[in-house]
Amino acid sequence: MAKQKTTFYCQECGVESPQWVGQCSSCKKWNTLVEEIVVKESKNKNTWVASSDGRTQSKKLSEISEENLARITMPGKELHRVLGNGLVRGSVTLVAGEPGIGKSTLFLQVALRLKGTKILYISGEESLEQIKIRAERVGSNNDQLFLLAESDTQKIFNEIKKIKPEIVIVDSVQTLQTPYVESAPGSVSQVRESAAEFIRFAKATQTPVFIIGHINKDGNIAGPKVLEHMVDTVLQFEGDRHYTYRILRAIKNRFGNASELGIYEMAQNGLREIDNPSEILISQKDEVLSGTAVAATMEGARPLLIETQALVTQAVYGTPQRTVSGFDMRRLQLLLAVLEKRGGFHLGVKDVFLNIAGGLKVEDPAIDLAVLAAILSSYEDMPILTSDCFVGEVGLSGEIRAVNRIEQRIKEAEKLGFERIFISKYNKSKHIQAEGIKIIQLGRVDELYNALF
Ligand code: TYD
Ligand code: MG
Questions:
Q1: How far apart are CA 137 and CA 154, in angstroms?
Q2: pLDDT (tens digit, 9 = 90+) per residue, 311-360?
Q3: Contact 128, 158 (CB under 8 A)
Q4: Which terminus of the chain is more exposed, N or C, with fewer CB under 10 A?
Q5: What pTM was estimated for this model as a whole?
Q6: Looking at residue 64, what DSSP letter applies?
Q7: Does ligand 1 lie within 6 Å of residue 214's CB atom?
Q8: Is the shortest distance between the CB of 266 and ligand 1 below 6 Å?
């Protein structure tokens, strides 16, 4: 018998190596290389290979027909927008998220609500009865929805040929198994080859495919980090499991804006879309308490007002603690250093805790100014007016930098009834006009202190 060919794959980033090494040459993680058996392509491979139907001919741009460009309207505004205003035919979307975050729930709901479209939902994780229980829980029905509990890709494609679905959902890529690779499901070579088969299928038949994949704690798509460059769109479903809010974030989109996001709430009967997130992310309080400030951030093309909370206390132990939730720890350390050096505040002897409302993770640097305001407010134990909000990025020399889309942020703050907004004085656009809200322009972090207290 011929010797089996094996290769070592890094389970984190998918890099291939002919021999075992302790540290991955690409992602530098230790002990991540695992030997996997590779079987070379068999001749009678029953998969979707582009056939010789003229597909390999080159065409003039003007000759390409536009009929397939029409996008499929998704049920639910959030997913529709995150995908770039609809689902493109023949596109492959990878949906990544930690186990238990709600990926299966979201896509079962999508499948149930896309009435009049033939959908095949393939689950390698749950039995048909379990999916039925979930469908009853989210309370919807679609008689064009076909369910299949299978993980063998060849059996799946046989079923696809019979049913001819218009949309395919695969839950999850880690359970798929193609007979052409011998290693276990979930291993890099399995995940890569199984996904590749679905990508070939999508392109050859113009059928959109959603591939759900689990990610590990580090935030890498476990093993299938390798899939990111193969698919058209990567959506990340994230959120803190202890909170009910979930964010669907586009991190790559060949057909739309890659910074778009949608917000959902996990309820007893499935995921509910949140239309005006700002109203929920600002807590309603009667008392004014120190340590909270509202930031006018942008997430994708949508303004989002969000509350930041800080607690600054005397450090009890020798090394002061910094704890963050929903914010980058190094960014907090940088902001504290700026306050210490440029503002003269002695934060080096204080414990600092920072929290972003709702367990959301904010990536917009314009949140900096609100974080500083919250820290200063807690440091001085003086509350900030609930009618104030903040927007601005803070630079290393203590300057408050201009941010993009300032008009939209101001408009949103005005709409939500804020009376004052603190922005950078470098945002010198002529568009900055507002009647219902007072705009206060700041140049440096010490001016913030004087303006507030
Ligand atoms: P699930 O979709 O199974 O997560 P994933 O596919 O990402 O692993 O979601 C499971 C969680 O969602 C589970 O903790 C229960 C919760 N859930 C609700 O709170 N309400 C519901 O209606 C449903 C269906 C699930
Ligand atoms: Mg699931």
A1: 31
A2: 999 988 788 999 998 899 999 999 999 999 988 899 989 999 999 887 77
A3: no
A4: N
A5: 0.80
A6: S
A7: no
A8: yes
Residue for token pair 């890569």? 192
DSSP 111-161: HHH-TTS-EEEEESSS-HHHHHHHHHHHT---TTEEEEE--BHHHHHHHHH
Q: What is the best residue among 94, 105, 210, 265 to mutate for testing ligand 1's pocket, by most ligand atoms within 8 Å of CB?
A: 105
- Give the integer Cα–Cα distance in Å for 351 and 317: 9
* Spatial separation of the C-alpha atoms in residues 99 and 120, rounded to whole Å: 22
CB neighbour list of residue 327: distance below 8 Å, 6 or more residues apart: 308, 354, 356, 361, 362, 367, 371
Q: Are 444 and 398 in contact (CB under 8 A)?
A: yes
Residue 47, φ and ψ in degrees, nearest 5: -140, 180
The secondary structure of residue 99, as a DSSP letter, is T
pLDDT, tens only, 185-198? 888 888 989 999 99
Total count of residues recorded for the chain? 453
Tokens 């690779």 belong to which residue? 181
Q: Ion ligand 2 — residues with CB under 5 Å? A: 104
Structure token digits, residue 281: 């992310």
Axis crossing angle, helix 445-452 with helix 329-343, rounded to the nearest 10: 80
